[in-house]
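Study both lines:
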Amino acid sequence: MPYNSQIHHRRSIRLKNYDYTQEGAYFITICTKNKQCIFGDIKQGEMKLNLLGTFARDYWQEIPQHFPHIKLDVFVIMPNHIHGILLIFPKIKPEEQPRSFGKIIPGSIPCIIRSYKSAITKKINQICNDKGISSVWQRNFYEHIHQNEESLEVVRNYIINNPVNWENDSENINKVYDGDTLLLDIPF
């Protein structure tokens, strides 16, 4: 069924009119559907990947093979989400394309994440012998665009230390609260 704004009422969380093929550092967070812990467990502050987590890691590492203008920075596969920094370097841009809802721009961050999520979903469904396409992911993804090295370094440290801080992670469905206050937040 084609998109109809009168029926679907979907809002994009992407920045309006931002060029997601633009050179820069993008902090990405992708969550599993219902925050299901399908990629492994945290043991003594270290992520122990299961088979699905291994696929998630390996496919993430293959992103530059499919998108040569992308370089991977730090990333971590967590039990129910992925944090990673993707660096876009200059490339020969295709002829300027009009932007509209639902239209994927080749080589853009949404295109890369869509491809990644699709490949993992297909692999997981294949392993689980699911005839239909079972949803693995929460709809959409989160990104933060970093303008300077200082903010990027803060996020790198957050990603690296995410397994150690799992008990307090905002993506942990069993997170620890002190009264009404979450003990750890994403740094931005």
Q: What stands out?
A: Confidence is low (pLDDT under 50) at residues 8-12, 176-188.
